[in-house]
Amino acid sequence: MTEGQFLTESGAAELRRELTELKQVKRPELAARLKEAISMGDLSENADYHDAKEQQAFLEGRINYLETLLRSATVVPDTESNKPNMVRVGVEVTVQEDGESPETFTIVGAAEANPKEGKISNESPLGSALLGHKVGDKVQVQAPAGALTFKIKAIKKAT
Known about the structure:
Chitinase A, domain 3
């Protein structure tokens, strides 16, 4: 499940914050809600109780996932240099297809990927194709519409 996964330092910190919030705020809130629902009696027809139990299962599953991920993932330190010379997890890379506008992505581990925020996984087709390459290199990516070629225009420390 989480074996061989990578996290950036900032991504690991964000997941630690989420875990703390879940354990110290959400779990006690849900416990209080369950206690209140139980006090209403007849649990077989108590919608609040059943809803709270479902939320508790989800919450405990998320806590377990985060604890396992944070314990087993490799945290990639922020790059020391402001001008990294190679694409790796934790850098921002600008690429361009012929005839298209440049696009900038941050390469992150799968657990942090969020394409809407420009964060792509090192395991995605584009992310894995870019790894290990330098500015000026061209990489080919297999997409459903066929092969796409991207030229690496810039690599910099992720912000």
